[in-house]
Amino acid sequence: MQWFVSNQGTTVGPMSADQLRAGITSGQITAGMHVRDEQGQWVAIEQSPFAGLLPTPLAPAPPVAPTAKSNESGVGATISALLLLGLGIYVFAKCSGSSEAPPAPVKVDDGRSMAWTMSRHFVEKRLKSPGSADYGGVFNGTYQSYDKQCVVLPAKRFRCHGWVDSQNGFGALVRSNWDMTIEDQGENWSLVELHSFE
What global pTM score does this model have? Predict the structure, then answer.
């Protein structure tokens, strides 16, 4: 006798009773699947002569005739379900969001970036070896950021501080700390006061 097994529209077979038993004991054929019996009728595996081989007895499932649908409909249903889930999450997030106005955008260019660049220019004028100047970097964890190193003052002035590693007159690398006030005069920048340079 030849047996056929159906699972959600996909039919496998023909197979012998021994092959069917092996599929059940290995877990490849499980409860919820259907087999075509000797009379050619589709019955749930739980209602077939092989029901005793199932690992745990379950309540009998109603017999369902297999359909001739292809696997493509299952893929389409899965994609549709995921799209609906995503749409539901999006709508929920939009509806449950805060009714407060969004924060005002942060003004990015307040002049500190250029002030930092110009303060480094004034520092390099005082170095023995300006070409060796090193203000730190992102990759070695010593980055000096203009937004932390410069403060905006009234009248287009900025107070900037930081450090620089450079070679001295003997070629040794030394660190100098500096603090200065500079002024934006339109096309030019001027050093208002050098508070310290050590």
Answer: 0.46
